[in-house]
Amino acid sequence: MGKKQRSTLFDIITSFGTRIAVLFGTFLSSVLIARILGPEGQGIIAAVFVLPNMLYSLADLGIRQSAAYFTGQKLYPIDTIHSAILTLWVISSSLAVLVVGTYFYFSMGNDYSWLVLLFALASLPLKLFHGYYKGILHGKNQIGAINISELLKAGIYFFGVVIVVWALGLGVPGGAFVQFLIPLGIAIYYLIRVNPYVNWKYEFDKSVAVKMLMKGFPYALALFLLTLNYKIDIIILRYFVPEAQIGLYSVGSNIAELVWQLPMAIGLVLFAKGATSRNSQATVRRAVKVLRVSFPIIIIICLFIIAFAPILIRLLYGEAYLGSATVLQLLMVGVIAICISKVLHPDLAGRGYPLYAIKAFIVPLFINIGLNFIFIPAWGINGAAAASTISYVIGGITFAILYARRENLMLKDVLFINKEDFEEIKAIIVKKYRNFRKKS
Questions:
Q1: Rounded to whole angstroms, how far apart are CA atoms 345 and 34?
Q2: Burial level of 179, CB count in 10 A (0-12/13-18/19+)?
Q3: How far apart are CA 100 and CA 226, in angstroms?
Q4: How far separated are the first and last CA of the chain, in Å rounded?
Q5: CA–CA separation, 294 and 417 (whole Å)
Q6: H/E element holding 159?
């Protein structure tokens, strides 16, 4: 490991600390905007932005991941990679805007304000831009810079809600504008952070762009499949329930997604390490150890939320959102399982094997879609939550089995904490304590 590379432990601690701060800031912002807009306004924002957010994962083309891989392995000069990224960004953004714009025109143009739709549409190329540039920082192992971007994102969200939605009272259009401001701010930030690594010479090499696309598209396909599993229910709900019910569902699902910030932080570190590491076995050992140690914590958090969801929803969001409590309780069961893939998938993707996510989640996706059409007419938003949880559990367990088989590991060695893990944790705590005593 080079002198400039941080240890995995340090990266996990800093990333986890960042995620905690982001979790708090995002959660506070979500509470504020939900209370201000009410369930119907919240539902409109969720319904309008769901397709751009879903399509982003496919329009990304996996360039973020392939840029990280090519940069980390130093396969091509950085300016050649950068030129390919810019070219692909122009192409993918144009196509994505065309697709989403067409959908908005025919499906939503008569239902929602075009100002809200335009903010959602304009956010898509900005998200793609900062996503592509994030890949370069991943490849350079700049975890600190990426952590700062997450804090910046939470800050823009919070102050945007306070100023635009609350103080100025701009309502749903203001909420949509804040969703546009977030990717705009992050795109500018990544442009500044990547600047020292590139010379801004356009050195486009078609073969490099094609190789990045071929390398990256499996990542995009895998991510799109995962995103469909997470978001398809909101699209289906729009045809069965009013916006106020979608607003209730979005609050429950947003909280559920916030819970998996812990494994996402760990996955962030594993992805960067995998992109720069040439020792696959060491990366595998690190990934499963991280999962074994974090999994009990995730379970405890989810069980706590299941037990106190009605109280938490009533206290934070008010009586108007009490219907979100059951949605949240149902989703938490699935979150426990989906956190398995949230840790293990970035490890495999970082080593160039994203297709295992497709193998694990293609069947659960179709199960999710089918159950949504069965459960939603019968049980409304609770049916959508139940369908999602069933697909999460099947997908998470399947991914763990596939991972264990690929790496020749016992399933218990992937999922369950063992004596060696406890001893290592104890040794780390003792070492940190002794260092602290010496400094004091």
A1: 32
A2: buried
A3: 19
A4: 30
A5: 9
A6: helix 143-160
Instruction: Write down the pLDDT at residue 70.
Output: 85
DSSP reduced 3-state for 300: helix
For the chain, which residues make up each domain, given as ranges?
8-429
Identity of the residue numbered 97: V
* Region 53-76 average pLDDT: 86
10 Å Cβ neighbour count for 302?
Answer: 22
Three-state SS sequence of 310-321? HHHHHHHHCHHH
Which tokens is 354 given?
């994203």
Residue reference for tokens 């891989």: 69
Share of the chain above pLDDT 70, in %: 90
Return the ∠ at Cα 131 (arms to 62 and 257), rounded to 5°.
90
Question: What is the amino acid identity at position 13?
Answer: I
Contacts of 391 (CB under 8 A, 6+ apart): 229, 334, 361, 364, 365, 367, 368, 371
Q: Which residues contact 110 (CB under 8 A, 6 or more apart)?
A: none
Indicate the helix (H) or strand (E) that contains 291: helix 280-317
C-alpha distance from residue 232 to each of 210, 249, 353 (Å): 30, 13, 25
Least Cα distance to 392 among 331, 301, 438, 344 occurs for 331
Q: How far apart are CA 427 and CA 423, in angstroms?
A: 6
* pLDDT tens per residue across span 11-26: 656 666 777 788 788 8
Read off the tokens for 213.
Answer: 């696309």
Measure CA 225 to chain center. 13
Confidence band (pLDDT; 50, 70, 90) for 327?
very high
Q: Which amino acid is at 430?
A: V
